[in-house]
Amino acid sequence: MVSLENIVPDLIVDLVAKQYPTRGEPLVVLRGVSFELSAGENIAILGPSGCGKSTLLNLIGTLDEPTSGTITLKGENPFALTEPQLAHFRNRNIGFVFQDHHLLPQLSVLENVLVPTLAEGSPNDEQLKRARDLIDRVGLAERIEHRPAELSGGERQRVAAARALVNNPILLLADEPTGSLDRANAKAMGDLLLELQRQEHTMLIVVTHSLELAGQMSRQLELDDGQLSEPTSNIQH
């Protein structure tokens, strides 16, 4: 029988701080942020614009390096890797969904979803099958050859969600994924992210200023003055 005490969380964020040099005092954005997450779990990080939510997500996503503290994913410190190793680690283990979908306008839905697979050459048959399956699961099978300009805002975000999952990441990061959507599409996007996360048994971190989106997640934390705490607002599930 496995002891629960011996189970190590898949993501450990430990006393992470981030500051940027200025001509005067350094600009301190994060002050000792800590939390843990395991496969199949999801969390919302709340806070107003400019509070450091995106900075935290970029650090967890290895797009930026913390000033101090550690981030461990599946027992590995990604910042100990070389740049080529880090790029490979990020591409294989982390999927991103941004407020602006960042789809390539000249590519079809299928081609956009396959973009993360191109880092290691042309997509193979298994990756093509995976991409088509994800496109079907997000409800866009009939638009698989459409380009972004032919899609609605909500449809573009669904393509972005499928693209984020095409490499079977263990961690899915969503930065204000409903920020540019109307209320109905925002609710649908939250539902879709949670459905995909459950099906894939990944970890999901959503940063948002939306109480409605945060309320769809299992757990919520609020970023204020560079630190995480339990939210002061009443969040309905």
Written overview of the protein:
The protein has 237 residues and is an alpha/beta fold. The protein is 32% helix and 24% strand. The chain has helices at residues 53-60, 83-93, 109-114, 125-137, 153-165, 183-200, 211-216; strands spanning 11-20, 27-37, 42-46, 68-73, 94-98, 171-175, 203-208, 220-224, 227-229. Strands 5-6-7-3-8-9 form a six-stranded mixed sheet, sandwiched between helices. Strands 2-1-4 form a three-stranded antiparallel sheet, with helices on one face. β1 (11-20) and β2 (27-37) form a beta hairpin. α4 runs antiparallel to α5 (153-165) and α5 (153-165) runs parallel beside α6 (183-200). The two termini are 34 Å apart. The mean pLDDT is 91.
Topology:
Blueprint: E1 11-20, E2 27-37, E3 42-46, H1 53-60, E4 68-73, H2 83-93, E5 94-98, H3 109-114, H4 125-137, H5 153-165, E6 171-175, H6 183-200, E7 203-208, H7 211-216, E8 220-224, E9 227-229
Helix pairs in contact: 4-5, 5-6
In short:
The protein is an alpha/beta fold and 237 residues long.
